[in-house]
Design a protein that fits this description.
Length: about 300
């Protein structure tokens, strides 16, 4: 796609009216729908979410997994926990992940490969699908929803929360913002750096020059009306959107020894969110769940229960 023809103003504006949800009841139930924001790949566009219903729900949670190939089933711990404590929880499979992965690709890698226009379009679809899940929860009678995002899931959760006032409280676990830090300092984005070097599309110096206006852009961004003024790579950066969730209740978890989300990236998102209550975990990125899942779940529940 020619970047000059790419219209950033269309991002996150896909209509969601008339989406049909097909539910296969079980434990958990499976909710399927066609993504309102089509990628053109039928496998990617067939959206699926797992619904963990609470017997006597007092609220609802949208839980968003991270990128990768093996983390989905272990992270079901959280929706199970929330359902047991009074929150019906929906856990969508993000586009380009797991059963929504294009043939011949690996789960999650599409968010690390491609140019900035392609990645922006993929973020657009991921956020649209999250908001469609909020629509589904509202159809079930939940006018207000909480959100929890783990790693990459925290990034798209930040954008979703910024765009939808129905999402009232948030838990953000081992996540971050400001892609300058993530692109050049994270172990996970080595493949992205190699591609940049091969295509000469970007390098660290060019990125630093572009991000010289990042603070100003983040401070000026107040609504989707302002997205037209952003460079494409800023349109999917959670730190750009963070200011729009400052007024709402949040909790934040940062891993002290995280090779995937650099500390500068985690700090950047946390500060722009208004410095909510944060716990520094004595762990790495993956071991945060292994060592602290009960603590993370309990503190997140306390946030959702708070007035």
């Amino acid at each position: 796609m020619n970047k000059k023809l790419f219209n950033t103003e269309s991002l996150y504006r896909t209509p969601r009216e008339g989406v049909e949800f097909v539910v296969s009841y079980g434990s958990p139930s499976i909710v399927e729908f066609t993504s309102p924001r089509s990628s053109g790949d039928p496998k990617v566009d067939r959206a699926r979410a797992y619904l963990f219903e609470s017997r006597n729900p007092k609220g609802a949670v949208l839980f968003v997994h991270g990128t990768g190939q093996k983390n989905f089933n272990p992270l079901k711990y959280y929706p199970d926990y929330f359902a047991d404590h009074g929150y019906t929880t929906i856990m969508p499979v993000l586009p380009y992940h797991f059963e929504r992965t294009p043939d011949g690709k690996k789960s999650g890698l599409s968010f690390l490969q491609g140019n900035d226009v392609q990645i922006a379009e993929r973020f657009d679809q991921a956020v649209t699908d999250l908001l469609t899940c909020v629509d589904y929860l509202q159809k079930k009678g939940f006018d207000e929803v909480n959100i929890m995002g783990f790693s990459f899931g925290g990034m798209v959760s930040t954008i979703a929360m910024a765009l939808d006032q129905r999402i009232k409280k948030g838990s953000f676990v081992v996540t971050g913002g400001n892609y300058e830090y993530i692109t050049w300092k994270s172990v996970a984005t080595k493949i992205m750096r190699v591609r940049y070097e091969e295509s000469e599309e970007c390098d660290q110096q060019k990125c630093e020059i572009k991000h010289a206006i990042f603070d100003k852009a983040a401070n000026r961004f107040n609504s989707l009306e302002d997205i037209k003024d952003l460079p494409v790579c800023f349109t999917y950066d959670p730190s750009i959107f963070a200011k729009m969730v400052r007024s709402r209740k949040k909790i934040f978890f940062t891993a002290r020894f995280d090779p995937f989300i650099p500390r500068a990236s985690s700090d950047d998102l946390w500060k722009r969110m208004g410095r909510p209550k944060r716990y520094l975990l004595f762990s790495g990125h993956l071991s945060a769940h292994l060592l602290y899942r009960r603590f993370i779940a309990r503190k997140s529940l306390e946030t959702f229960n708070s007035r």
